[in-house]
Amino acid sequence: MSSFDLIEIVIASGKGGVGKSTIAASLAILLGNSGYRVIAVDADAEAPNLHLVLGINKWDRIIEFREGRIGFIRDDKCIYCGYCYDSCVFSAIEERNGKYVINPWICEGCFTCSFVCPVKAISFKYNVLAGYIRIAYNTPYRFPLVSSEIKPGRPNSGKLVTEAKNLGRTISGGKGIIIIDAAAGIGCQVIASLAGTQLAILVAEPTPASFSDLKRIHKLTKHFGIPSTLIINKYDLNEEYVSKIIEYAEKENIELLGLIPYDDSVPKSMAIGKPVIHAYPNSDIAKEIIKIANKLLTILRNWNNWKLEHIPEKIEPFIPIIIKPEK
Amino acid sequence: MERIIQISITGGKGGTGKSFVATNLTILLAEKHDLLLADLDLEAPNDHVLLGINKLHNKEDIKIFLPFIDYKKCTLCGICAKICDTGAIFMPPKSPPIVFPRLCSGCKACYYACPYDAIIEGGHVIAHSYLTNVTKFNVSFRLLTGILEPGEEHIPPGLAIIKRKARELAKEILLIDTGAGAGSSIPIALQYSDLVIAVTEPTPLGLHDLESILKIANGLGYRTWVIINRYGLGPIDDHLKIMKIYGVEKYFKIPYSIDAVKSYIQGIPIVVYNPDSIVSKSFYDIYQVLEDEIL
What is the pTM of this model? Predict the structure, then answer.
Protein backbone atom coordinates (compact mmCIF):
# COMPACT_ATOMS: atom_id res chain seq x y z
CA MET A 1 0.00 0.00 0.00
CA SER A 2 2.73 2.48 0.79
CA SER A 3 6.44 3.01 0.59
CA PHE A 4 7.15 3.01 4.31
CA ASP A 5 6.84 0.59 7.18
CA LEU A 6 6.54 3.06 10.01
CA ILE A 7 5.98 6.78 9.80
CA GLU A 8 5.89 9.18 12.73
CA ILE A 9 3.79 12.32 12.36
CA VAL A 10 4.03 15.15 14.88
CA ILE A 11 1.29 17.69 15.43
CA ALA A 12 2.77 20.91 16.79
CA SER A 13 1.97 24.61 16.85
CA GLY A 14 4.14 26.66 19.18
CA LYS A 15 1.10 28.45 20.52
CA GLY A 16 -1.22 26.53 22.81
CA GLY A 17 -4.96 26.15 22.41
CA VAL A 18 -5.04 26.26 18.62
CA GLY A 19 -6.49 22.76 18.25
CA LYS A 20 -3.62 20.25 18.22
CA SER A 21 -5.36 17.58 20.29
CA THR A 22 -8.69 17.96 18.50
CA ILE A 23 -6.97 17.51 15.16
CA ALA A 24 -4.68 14.72 16.39
CA ALA A 25 -7.63 12.70 17.72
CA SER A 26 -9.66 13.02 14.54
CA LEU A 27 -6.75 12.28 12.22
CA ALA A 28 -5.76 9.21 14.23
CA ILE A 29 -9.31 7.86 13.88
CA LEU A 30 -9.57 8.63 10.17
CA LEU A 31 -6.16 7.18 9.28
CA GLY A 32 -7.04 4.09 11.31
CA ASN A 33 -10.35 3.74 9.45
CA SER A 34 -8.52 3.83 6.15
CA GLY A 35 -6.61 0.67 6.99
CA TYR A 36 -3.40 1.90 8.57
CA ARG A 37 -2.27 0.58 11.89
CA VAL A 38 -2.27 3.70 14.09
CA ILE A 39 -0.74 4.44 17.47
CA ALA A 40 -1.48 7.75 19.18
CA VAL A 41 1.06 9.27 21.55
CA ASP A 42 0.21 12.19 23.82
CA ALA A 43 3.53 13.99 24.06
CA ASP A 44 2.25 16.93 26.06
CA ALA A 45 3.28 15.54 29.43
CA GLU A 46 2.61 18.80 31.26
CA ALA A 47 -0.94 19.13 29.99
CA PRO A 48 -1.94 15.74 28.53
CA ASN A 49 -5.38 16.08 27.00
CA LEU A 50 -5.61 13.68 24.06
CA HIS A 51 -7.36 11.04 26.18
CA LEU A 52 -9.99 13.61 27.16
CA VAL A 53 -10.72 14.47 23.53
CA LEU A 54 -11.00 10.74 22.79
CA GLY A 55 -13.13 10.15 25.89
CA ILE A 56 -10.73 7.59 27.35
CA ASN A 57 -10.70 7.30 31.12
CA LYS A 58 -9.42 3.77 31.71
CA TRP A 59 -5.85 2.66 31.32
CA ASP A 60 -4.72 -0.90 30.70
CA ARG A 61 -1.27 -0.26 31.97
CA ILE A 62 0.39 2.50 34.00
CA ILE A 63 4.18 2.69 34.16
CA GLU A 64 5.86 4.83 36.81
CA PHE A 65 8.47 7.32 35.69
CA ARG A 66 10.98 7.72 38.48
CA GLU A 67 13.53 10.33 37.75
CA GLY A 68 15.73 12.65 39.68
CA ARG A 69 16.16 13.78 43.23
CA ILE A 70 15.01 16.47 45.59
CA GLY A 71 17.36 18.06 48.10
CA PHE A 72 16.58 19.16 51.64
CA ILE A 73 18.58 21.13 54.18
CA ARG A 74 19.04 19.68 57.64
CA ASP A 75 18.34 22.44 60.13
CA ASP A 76 20.50 20.87 62.84
CA LYS A 77 23.59 21.12 60.62
CA CYS A 78 22.99 24.35 58.64
CA ILE A 79 25.20 27.27 59.66
CA TYR A 80 23.26 29.83 57.56
CA CYS A 81 26.26 30.74 55.39
CA GLY A 82 24.07 31.14 52.29
CA TYR A 83 26.52 29.47 49.88
CA CYS A 84 23.79 27.10 48.69
CA TYR A 85 21.44 30.00 48.05
CA ASP A 86 24.01 31.71 45.84
CA SER A 87 24.97 28.54 43.96
CA CYS A 88 21.55 27.30 42.83
CA VAL A 89 20.96 28.20 39.17
CA PHE A 90 17.33 27.11 39.43
CA SER A 91 16.59 29.54 42.30
CA ALA A 92 15.26 26.55 44.25
CA ILE A 93 16.72 27.75 47.55
CA GLU A 94 14.67 30.32 49.43
CA GLU A 95 15.39 32.32 52.53
CA ARG A 96 12.46 32.05 54.91
CA ASN A 97 12.63 33.66 58.35
CA GLY A 98 16.42 33.57 58.39
CA LYS A 99 16.52 29.91 57.38
CA TYR A 100 17.44 28.41 54.04
CA VAL A 101 14.87 26.05 52.59
CA ILE A 102 14.95 24.07 49.35
CA ASN A 103 11.71 24.53 47.47
CA PRO A 104 10.80 20.97 46.43
CA TRP A 105 8.69 22.27 43.56
CA ILE A 106 11.76 23.79 41.91
CA CYS A 107 14.71 21.57 42.94
CA GLU A 108 16.02 19.32 40.15
CA GLY A 109 18.44 17.48 42.44
CA CYS A 110 21.61 18.48 40.56
CA PHE A 111 23.83 18.22 43.71
CA THR A 112 25.43 21.66 43.20
CA CYS A 113 24.32 23.00 46.60
CA SER A 114 25.60 19.90 48.38
CA PHE A 115 29.07 20.48 46.89
CA VAL A 116 29.25 24.10 48.04
CA CYS A 117 27.83 23.41 51.51
CA PRO A 118 30.81 23.54 53.90
CA VAL A 119 29.07 21.49 56.62
CA LYS A 120 27.34 18.81 54.55
CA ALA A 121 23.90 19.90 55.66
CA ILE A 122 22.15 18.94 52.44
CA SER A 123 20.72 15.49 51.82
CA PHE A 124 18.65 14.11 48.97
CA LYS A 125 15.56 12.09 48.46
CA TYR A 126 16.27 9.74 45.54
CA ASN A 127 14.17 8.06 42.90
CA VAL A 128 11.37 10.60 43.03
CA LEU A 129 8.12 9.66 41.31
CA ALA A 130 8.03 12.22 38.52
CA GLY A 131 5.21 10.98 36.33
CA TYR A 132 3.56 8.15 34.47
CA ILE A 133 3.23 6.62 31.06
CA ARG A 134 -0.31 5.37 30.64
CA ILE A 135 -1.42 2.97 27.94
CA ALA A 136 -4.91 2.16 26.67
CA TYR A 137 -4.50 -0.78 24.28
CA ASN A 138 -8.09 -1.09 23.19
CA THR A 139 -9.69 2.27 22.76
CA PRO A 140 -13.16 2.55 21.20
CA TYR A 141 -11.33 3.64 18.08
CA ARG A 142 -9.29 0.44 17.85
CA PHE A 143 -5.91 2.12 18.06
CA PRO A 144 -3.77 2.19 21.21
CA LEU A 145 -3.06 5.44 23.03
CA VAL A 146 0.18 6.06 24.91
CA SER A 147 -0.09 9.07 27.21
CA SER A 148 2.70 10.72 29.14
CA GLU A 149 1.95 12.63 32.31
CA ILE A 150 4.53 14.49 34.38
CA LYS A 151 3.75 15.29 38.01
CA PRO A 152 3.02 19.01 38.24
CA GLY A 153 6.24 20.95 38.74
CA ARG A 154 8.63 18.06 38.06
CA PRO A 155 11.49 18.49 35.57
CA ASN A 156 12.54 16.30 32.63
CA SER A 157 9.20 16.16 30.86
CA GLY A 158 11.23 15.87 27.63
CA LYS A 159 12.77 12.62 28.81
CA LEU A 160 9.34 11.27 29.68
CA VAL A 161 8.08 12.20 26.21
CA THR A 162 11.01 10.34 24.63
CA GLU A 163 10.13 7.24 26.66
CA ALA A 164 6.46 7.47 25.70
CA LYS A 165 7.43 7.77 22.04
CA ASN A 166 9.74 4.77 22.31
CA LEU A 167 6.94 2.77 23.85
CA GLY A 168 4.70 3.78 20.95
CA ARG A 169 7.34 2.49 18.54
CA THR A 170 7.58 -0.81 20.40
CA ILE A 171 3.82 -1.26 20.34
CA SER A 172 3.75 -0.49 16.61
CA GLY A 173 6.10 -3.40 15.95
CA GLY A 174 7.75 -1.15 13.37
CA LYS A 175 4.65 -0.88 11.22
CA GLY A 176 2.01 1.78 10.75
CA ILE A 177 1.57 5.42 11.67
CA ILE A 178 2.41 7.03 15.00
CA ILE A 179 0.51 10.25 15.61
CA ILE A 180 2.34 12.39 18.16
CA ASP A 181 0.40 15.20 19.81
CA ALA A 182 3.09 17.67 20.93
CA ALA A 183 3.04 20.26 23.69
CA ALA A 184 2.71 23.99 23.22
CA GLY A 185 5.95 25.92 22.99
CA ILE A 186 9.30 25.01 21.48
CA GLY A 187 11.06 23.61 24.55
CA CYS A 188 12.35 20.21 25.62
CA GLN A 189 9.03 18.38 25.24
CA VAL A 190 8.58 19.63 21.71
CA ILE A 191 12.18 18.89 20.76
CA ALA A 192 11.75 15.37 22.16
CA SER A 193 8.54 15.05 20.14
CA LEU A 194 10.17 16.12 16.88
CA ALA A 195 13.37 14.09 17.17
CA GLY A 196 13.46 11.21 14.71
CA THR A 197 10.07 11.86 13.14
CA GLN A 198 9.33 12.13 9.43
CA LEU A 199 6.47 14.59 9.04
CA ALA A 200 5.18 17.62 10.92
CA ILE A 201 1.62 18.91 10.83
CA LEU A 202 1.76 22.50 12.07
CA VAL A 203 -1.48 23.97 13.35
CA ALA A 204 -2.07 27.72 13.39
CA GLU A 205 -4.99 30.05 13.89
CA PRO A 206 -5.18 33.36 12.02
CA THR A 207 -3.99 35.60 14.84
CA PRO A 208 -0.75 37.58 15.15
CA ALA A 209 0.29 35.53 18.22
CA SER A 210 -0.20 32.18 16.51
CA PHE A 211 1.58 33.38 13.36
CA SER A 212 4.55 34.49 15.46
CA ASP A 213 4.70 31.09 17.21
CA LEU A 214 4.23 29.22 13.92
CA LYS A 215 7.46 30.77 12.62
CA ARG A 216 9.28 29.68 15.79
CA ILE A 217 8.07 26.08 15.63
CA HIS A 218 8.84 25.93 11.91
CA LYS A 219 12.38 27.00 12.65
CA LEU A 220 12.66 23.89 14.80
CA THR A 221 11.23 21.52 12.17
CA LYS A 222 13.82 22.97 9.78
CA HIS A 223 16.58 22.31 12.34
CA PHE A 224 15.47 18.70 12.34
CA GLY A 225 15.10 18.54 8.56
CA ILE A 226 11.46 17.46 8.88
CA PRO A 227 9.07 18.37 6.04
CA SER A 228 6.10 20.39 7.28
CA THR A 229 2.46 20.68 6.41
CA LEU A 230 -0.03 23.21 7.74
CA ILE A 231 -3.60 23.33 8.98
CA ILE A 232 -5.19 26.70 9.64
CA ASN A 233 -7.78 26.21 12.33
CA LYS A 234 -10.62 28.65 13.11
CA TYR A 235 -9.79 30.19 9.74
CA ASP A 236 -12.90 32.33 9.69
CA LEU A 237 -11.62 34.43 12.62
CA ASN A 238 -9.62 36.71 10.36
CA GLU A 239 -9.06 36.76 6.61
CA GLU A 240 -6.01 38.97 6.63
CA TYR A 241 -3.99 36.61 8.80
CA VAL A 242 -5.13 33.59 6.79
CA SER A 243 -3.54 35.13 3.71
CA LYS A 244 -0.41 36.15 5.65
CA ILE A 245 0.02 32.61 6.95
CA ILE A 246 -0.63 31.05 3.53
CA GLU A 247 1.87 33.40 1.95
CA TYR A 248 4.47 32.34 4.54
CA ALA A 249 3.67 28.65 3.94
CA GLU A 250 4.10 29.01 0.19
CA LYS A 251 7.41 30.77 0.59
CA GLU A 252 8.64 28.10 3.01
CA ASN A 253 7.39 25.12 0.96
CA ILE A 254 4.93 24.06 3.64
CA GLU A 255 2.00 22.20 2.11
CA LEU A 256 -1.38 23.51 3.18
CA LEU A 257 -3.60 20.59 4.21
CA GLY A 258 -6.72 22.61 4.81
CA LEU A 259 -8.68 25.31 6.58
CA ILE A 260 -10.99 24.42 9.45
CA PRO A 261 -13.78 26.82 10.39
CA TYR A 262 -14.78 27.68 13.93
CA ASP A 263 -18.02 26.79 15.59
CA ASP A 264 -19.01 25.56 19.01
CA SER A 265 -19.25 21.90 17.96
CA VAL A 266 -15.65 21.48 19.18
CA PRO A 267 -16.19 22.60 22.80
CA LYS A 268 -19.55 20.76 22.78
CA SER A 269 -17.96 17.52 21.66
CA MET A 270 -15.22 17.95 24.28
CA ALA A 271 -17.88 18.31 26.96
CA ILE A 272 -19.30 14.88 26.06
CA GLY A 273 -15.86 13.29 25.58
CA LYS A 274 -16.31 12.48 21.90
CA PRO A 275 -14.11 13.54 19.00
CA VAL A 276 -15.86 16.14 16.86
CA ILE A 277 -15.97 13.91 13.76
CA HIS A 278 -18.11 11.44 15.71
CA ALA A 279 -20.11 13.86 17.83
CA TYR A 280 -21.00 16.16 14.92
CA PRO A 281 -20.28 14.20 11.74
CA ASN A 282 -22.29 16.62 9.61
CA SER A 283 -20.63 19.79 10.89
CA ASP A 284 -18.47 21.84 8.56
CA ILE A 285 -15.58 21.14 10.88
CA ALA A 286 -15.96 17.37 10.54
CA LYS A 287 -16.24 17.63 6.76
CA GLU A 288 -13.10 19.72 6.56
CA ILE A 289 -11.14 17.37 8.82
CA ILE A 290 -12.15 14.43 6.59
CA LYS A 291 -10.84 16.34 3.57
CA ILE A 292 -7.61 17.00 5.42
CA ALA A 293 -7.26 13.32 6.30
CA ASN A 294 -7.74 12.41 2.65
CA LYS A 295 -5.08 14.88 1.62
CA LEU A 296 -2.78 13.36 4.22
CA LEU A 297 -3.54 9.88 2.86
CA THR A 298 -2.59 11.05 -0.63
CA ILE A 299 0.72 12.29 0.75
CA LEU A 300 1.34 8.99 2.52
CA ARG A 301 0.52 6.93 -0.58
CA ASN A 302 2.95 9.01 -2.53
CA TRP A 303 5.38 9.29 0.38
CA ASN A 304 8.78 8.94 -1.28
CA ASN A 305 8.11 11.54 -3.93
CA TRP A 306 6.33 13.92 -1.61
CA LYS A 307 9.12 13.74 0.93
CA LEU A 308 11.73 14.59 -1.69
CA GLU A 309 9.72 17.61 -2.79
CA HIS A 310 9.08 18.92 0.70
CA ILE A 311 12.14 18.17 2.75
CA PRO A 312 13.61 21.54 3.82
CA GLU A 313 16.13 22.56 1.16
CA LYS A 314 18.63 23.82 3.63
CA ILE A 315 18.61 22.17 6.99
CA GLU A 316 19.05 25.13 9.32
CA PRO A 317 21.89 24.02 11.54
CA PHE A 318 21.48 24.55 15.21
CA ILE A 319 24.50 26.38 16.50
CA PRO A 320 24.39 27.16 20.20
CA ILE A 321 25.79 30.55 21.21
CA ILE A 322 28.89 29.66 23.20
CA ILE A 323 30.99 32.05 25.25
CA LYS A 324 34.49 30.79 25.87
CA PRO A 325 36.11 31.31 29.27
CA GLU A 326 38.19 34.44 29.68
CA LYS A 327 41.86 33.65 29.70
CA MET B 1 12.48 49.74 50.07
CA GLU B 2 8.78 49.30 49.53
CA ARG B 3 7.71 45.76 49.02
CA ILE B 4 6.68 44.86 45.49
CA ILE B 5 3.43 43.04 44.82
CA GLN B 6 3.80 40.08 42.47
CA ILE B 7 0.72 38.86 40.64
CA SER B 8 1.27 35.84 38.39
CA ILE B 9 -1.01 34.80 35.53
CA THR B 10 -0.84 31.11 34.60
CA GLY B 11 -3.23 28.35 33.57
CA GLY B 12 -1.78 25.00 32.49
CA LYS B 13 -3.53 24.57 29.18
CA GLY B 14 -2.33 26.69 26.29
CA GLY B 15 -4.62 29.16 24.62
CA THR B 16 -6.94 29.75 27.57
CA GLY B 17 -6.18 33.46 27.55
CA LYS B 18 -3.23 33.99 29.90
CA SER B 19 -1.63 36.71 27.79
CA PHE B 20 -5.03 38.19 26.99
CA VAL B 21 -5.70 38.60 30.71
CA ALA B 22 -2.16 39.80 31.49
CA THR B 23 -2.17 42.52 28.84
CA ASN B 24 -5.63 43.82 29.70
CA LEU B 25 -4.90 43.92 33.43
CA THR B 26 -1.64 45.70 32.59
CA ILE B 27 -3.54 48.56 30.93
CA LEU B 28 -5.93 48.91 33.87
CA LEU B 29 -3.28 48.61 36.60
CA ALA B 30 -0.75 50.90 34.90
CA GLU B 31 -3.11 53.84 35.14
CA LYS B 32 -2.52 54.26 38.89
CA HIS B 33 0.54 52.14 39.56
CA ASP B 34 4.11 51.64 38.46
CA LEU B 35 3.95 48.30 36.69
CA LEU B 36 6.42 45.86 35.19
CA LEU B 37 4.87 43.20 32.96
CA ALA B 38 7.20 40.19 32.68
CA ASP B 39 6.45 37.85 29.78
CA LEU B 40 8.02 34.64 31.07
CA ASP B 41 6.64 32.42 28.31
CA LEU B 42 10.11 32.06 26.81
CA GLU B 43 9.01 29.46 24.27
CA ALA B 44 6.15 31.44 22.79
CA PRO B 45 6.20 35.03 24.10
CA ASN B 46 3.20 36.97 22.86
CA ASP B 47 2.46 39.85 25.22
CA HIS B 48 4.19 42.33 22.92
CA VAL B 49 2.19 40.95 19.97
CA LEU B 50 -1.07 41.40 21.85
CA LEU B 51 -0.05 44.95 22.75
CA GLY B 52 0.82 45.75 19.15
CA ILE B 53 4.46 46.47 20.03
CA ASN B 54 6.61 45.94 16.95
CA LYS B 55 10.00 46.55 18.41
CA LEU B 56 11.49 45.41 21.68
CA HIS B 57 14.41 47.30 23.19
CA ASN B 58 17.41 46.82 25.48
CA LYS B 59 18.37 43.31 24.39
CA GLU B 60 20.51 41.31 26.79
CA ASP B 61 22.01 37.83 26.62
CA ILE B 62 20.64 35.28 29.04
CA LYS B 63 23.75 33.27 29.70
CA ILE B 64 23.93 30.04 31.65
CA PHE B 65 27.07 28.25 32.82
CA LEU B 66 28.88 25.95 30.36
CA PRO B 67 31.88 23.83 31.43
CA PHE B 68 35.18 23.97 29.58
CA ILE B 69 37.90 21.45 30.38
CA ASP B 70 41.38 22.55 31.40
CA TYR B 71 43.32 19.73 29.78
CA LYS B 72 46.46 20.53 31.74
CA LYS B 73 44.67 19.86 35.00
CA CYS B 74 42.28 17.07 33.96
CA THR B 75 43.33 13.63 35.24
CA LEU B 76 40.58 11.75 33.37
CA CYS B 77 39.01 10.73 36.68
CA GLY B 78 35.52 10.87 35.18
CA ILE B 79 33.74 12.41 38.15
CA CYS B 80 32.28 15.24 36.05
CA ALA B 81 30.68 12.80 33.62
CA LYS B 82 29.30 10.74 36.48
CA ILE B 83 27.75 13.74 38.24
CA CYS B 84 26.16 15.17 35.09
CA ASP B 85 22.41 14.49 35.08
CA THR B 86 21.76 15.57 31.53
CA GLY B 87 24.39 13.51 29.73
CA ALA B 88 26.19 16.65 28.59
CA ILE B 89 29.63 15.35 29.57
CA PHE B 90 30.88 12.26 27.80
CA MET B 91 34.06 10.37 28.74
CA PRO B 92 35.57 8.46 25.84
CA PRO B 93 37.97 5.73 27.00
CA LYS B 94 41.39 7.10 27.96
CA SER B 95 40.62 10.62 26.73
CA PRO B 96 39.48 13.81 28.40
CA PRO B 97 35.75 14.51 28.65
CA ILE B 98 33.78 16.02 25.79
CA VAL B 99 31.05 18.58 26.52
CA PHE B 100 27.81 18.79 24.51
CA PRO B 101 26.59 22.35 25.06
CA ARG B 102 23.02 21.71 23.95
CA LEU B 103 22.50 19.03 26.58
CA CYS B 104 24.00 21.07 29.41
CA SER B 105 21.55 22.67 31.85
CA GLY B 106 24.24 24.88 33.35
CA CYS B 107 23.69 23.49 36.85
CA LYS B 108 27.42 23.77 37.60
CA ALA B 109 27.58 20.49 39.56
CA CYS B 110 30.61 19.36 37.49
CA TYR B 111 32.41 22.61 38.28
CA TYR B 112 32.14 22.03 42.01
CA ALA B 113 32.55 18.25 41.83
CA CYS B 114 35.89 18.25 39.97
CA PRO B 115 38.59 17.54 42.56
CA TYR B 116 41.34 19.02 40.34
CA ASP B 117 39.84 22.42 39.44
CA ALA B 118 39.95 21.31 35.84
CA ILE B 119 36.61 22.81 34.87
CA ILE B 120 36.64 26.42 33.75
CA GLU B 121 33.56 28.57 33.61
CA GLY B 122 32.29 29.41 30.13
CA GLY B 123 28.85 30.48 29.06
CA HIS B 124 26.00 29.50 26.82
CA VAL B 125 23.42 32.01 25.67
CA ILE B 126 20.07 30.20 25.61
CA ALA B 127 17.74 33.17 25.45
CA HIS B 128 17.54 36.94 25.33
CA SER B 129 15.68 39.40 27.46
CA TYR B 130 14.29 42.75 26.34
CA LEU B 131 13.22 45.64 28.51
CA THR B 132 10.87 47.96 26.67
CA ASN B 133 9.41 51.20 27.99
CA VAL B 134 5.88 51.32 26.72
CA THR B 135 3.78 54.44 26.46
CA LYS B 136 0.65 53.50 24.63
CA PHE B 137 -3.12 53.46 25.09
CA ASN B 138 -2.77 56.46 27.49
CA VAL B 139 -0.68 54.57 30.04
CA SER B 140 3.02 53.90 30.68
CA PHE B 141 4.60 50.71 31.93
CA ARG B 142 7.64 48.54 31.35
CA LEU B 143 7.63 45.20 29.53
CA LEU B 144 10.30 42.58 30.22
CA THR B 145 10.24 39.86 27.56
CA GLY B 146 12.19 36.62 27.61
CA ILE B 147 12.71 34.91 24.25
CA LEU B 148 14.24 31.44 23.96
CA GLU B 149 16.68 30.69 21.15
CA PRO B 150 14.85 28.05 19.07
CA GLY B 151 16.60 24.72 19.58
CA GLU B 152 17.51 25.33 23.20
CA GLU B 153 15.72 23.20 25.74
CA HIS B 154 17.03 23.90 29.24
CA ILE B 155 14.61 26.63 30.11
CA PRO B 156 14.52 26.64 33.97
CA PRO B 157 17.98 28.16 34.63
CA GLY B 158 17.44 30.82 31.93
CA LEU B 159 14.01 31.54 33.28
CA ALA B 160 15.41 31.88 36.80
CA ILE B 161 17.81 34.60 35.55
CA ILE B 162 15.04 36.58 33.84
CA LYS B 163 12.77 36.14 36.83
CA ARG B 164 15.46 37.51 39.17
CA LYS B 165 15.85 40.45 36.82
CA ALA B 166 12.10 41.08 36.92
CA ARG B 167 12.13 41.08 40.73
CA GLU B 168 15.02 43.57 40.73
CA LEU B 169 13.45 45.87 38.15
CA ALA B 170 9.94 45.96 39.58
CA LYS B 171 9.10 48.93 41.76
CA GLU B 172 5.50 48.53 42.73
CA ILE B 173 3.62 45.82 40.82
CA LEU B 174 5.24 42.89 39.04
CA LEU B 175 2.73 41.21 36.75
CA ILE B 176 3.99 37.87 35.46
CA ASP B 177 2.65 35.97 32.45
CA THR B 178 3.81 32.33 32.44
CA GLY B 179 3.94 29.83 29.61
CA ALA B 180 1.59 26.91 29.08
CA GLY B 181 2.10 23.60 30.84
CA ALA B 182 2.71 22.62 34.42
CA GLY B 183 6.34 21.56 34.33
CA SER B 184 9.38 22.74 36.22
CA SER B 185 9.39 26.23 34.67
CA ILE B 186 6.05 27.14 36.18
CA PRO B 187 7.09 27.09 39.88
CA ILE B 188 10.09 29.31 39.02
CA ALA B 189 7.77 31.82 37.34
CA LEU B 190 5.30 31.66 40.25
CA GLN B 191 7.92 31.83 43.01
CA TYR B 192 7.36 34.73 45.46
CA SER B 193 3.84 35.45 44.16
CA ASP B 194 1.50 37.44 46.35
CA LEU B 195 -1.33 36.20 44.17
CA VAL B 196 -1.61 33.54 41.46
CA ILE B 197 -4.38 33.95 38.90
CA ALA B 198 -5.06 30.77 36.93
CA VAL B 199 -6.89 31.30 33.65
CA THR B 200 -8.93 28.35 32.42
CA GLU B 201 -11.77 27.58 30.02
CA PRO B 202 -15.01 25.64 30.50
CA THR B 203 -13.87 22.43 28.78
CA PRO B 204 -12.67 19.13 30.27
CA LEU B 205 -9.21 20.01 28.91
CA GLY B 206 -9.17 23.33 30.71
CA LEU B 207 -10.36 21.57 33.85
CA HIS B 208 -7.69 18.86 33.70
CA ASP B 209 -4.83 21.33 33.30
CA LEU B 210 -6.27 23.76 35.83
CA GLU B 211 -5.99 21.02 38.43
CA SER B 212 -2.26 20.57 37.68
CA ILE B 213 -1.69 24.30 38.13
CA LEU B 214 -3.74 24.44 41.33
CA LYS B 215 -1.63 21.58 42.73
CA ILE B 216 1.49 23.69 42.14
CA ALA B 217 0.07 26.97 43.48
CA ASN B 218 -1.37 25.17 46.49
CA GLY B 219 1.87 23.28 47.10
CA LEU B 220 3.80 26.53 46.95
CA GLY B 221 1.32 28.03 49.40
CA TYR B 222 0.26 31.04 47.35
CA ARG B 223 -3.13 32.76 47.39
CA THR B 224 -4.96 31.74 44.24
CA TRP B 225 -7.81 33.11 42.16
CA VAL B 226 -9.24 31.62 38.98
CA ILE B 227 -10.58 33.26 35.84
CA ILE B 228 -12.93 31.16 33.73
CA ASN B 229 -12.46 32.60 30.27
CA ARG B 230 -14.94 32.01 27.43
CA TYR B 231 -17.61 31.41 30.03
CA GLY B 232 -20.68 29.96 28.39
CA LEU B 233 -18.92 27.44 26.15
CA GLY B 234 -19.57 24.55 28.52
CA PRO B 235 -20.31 23.46 32.08
CA ILE B 236 -18.12 24.65 34.97
CA ASP B 237 -19.50 22.52 37.84
CA ASP B 238 -16.38 20.36 38.02
CA HIS B 239 -14.15 23.42 37.82
CA LEU B 240 -15.87 24.81 40.89
CA LYS B 241 -15.42 21.51 42.73
CA ILE B 242 -11.66 21.34 42.23
CA MET B 243 -11.29 25.05 43.01
CA LYS B 244 -12.82 24.30 46.38
CA ILE B 245 -10.50 21.35 46.98
CA TYR B 246 -7.41 23.47 46.31
CA GLY B 247 -8.55 26.46 48.34
CA VAL B 248 -9.12 28.94 45.51
CA GLU B 249 -10.22 32.19 47.17
CA LYS B 250 -12.21 33.74 44.36
CA TYR B 251 -13.18 33.20 40.79
CA PHE B 252 -14.31 35.41 37.95
CA LYS B 253 -16.00 34.73 34.65
CA ILE B 254 -15.17 36.33 31.34
CA PRO B 255 -18.02 35.61 28.93
CA TYR B 256 -17.32 34.20 25.51
CA SER B 257 -17.59 36.98 22.98
CA ILE B 258 -16.36 37.65 19.46
CA ASP B 259 -15.27 41.11 20.75
CA ALA B 260 -12.30 39.41 22.43
CA VAL B 261 -11.12 37.85 19.17
CA LYS B 262 -11.43 41.15 17.29
CA SER B 263 -9.29 43.08 19.76
CA TYR B 264 -6.80 40.21 19.96
CA ILE B 265 -6.21 40.30 16.23
CA GLN B 266 -5.83 44.08 16.18
CA GLY B 267 -3.11 43.99 18.81
CA ILE B 268 -5.16 46.34 20.99
CA PRO B 269 -6.29 45.26 24.48
CA ILE B 270 -10.05 44.93 24.57
CA VAL B 271 -10.39 47.43 27.46
CA VAL B 272 -9.04 50.01 24.99
CA TYR B 273 -10.50 48.64 21.74
CA ASN B 274 -14.01 48.11 23.01
CA PRO B 275 -14.43 49.49 26.53
CA ASP B 276 -18.18 48.80 26.50
CA SER B 277 -17.84 45.13 25.65
CA ILE B 278 -19.06 42.61 28.26
CA VAL B 279 -15.50 41.27 28.22
CA SER B 280 -14.08 44.66 29.19
CA LYS B 281 -16.64 44.91 31.97
CA SER B 282 -15.36 41.65 33.43
CA PHE B 283 -11.86 43.10 33.45
CA TYR B 284 -13.03 46.22 35.32
CA ASP B 285 -14.55 43.93 37.96
CA ILE B 286 -11.34 41.92 38.34
CA TYR B 287 -9.30 45.11 38.44
CA GLN B 288 -11.49 46.60 41.15
CA VAL B 289 -11.21 43.51 43.35
CA LEU B 290 -7.43 43.56 42.85
CA GLU B 291 -7.35 47.19 43.97
CA ASP B 292 -9.50 46.46 47.00
CA GLU B 293 -7.95 43.24 48.18
CA ILE B 294 -4.37 42.98 46.95
CA LEU B 295 -2.97 46.45 46.32
Answer: 0.96
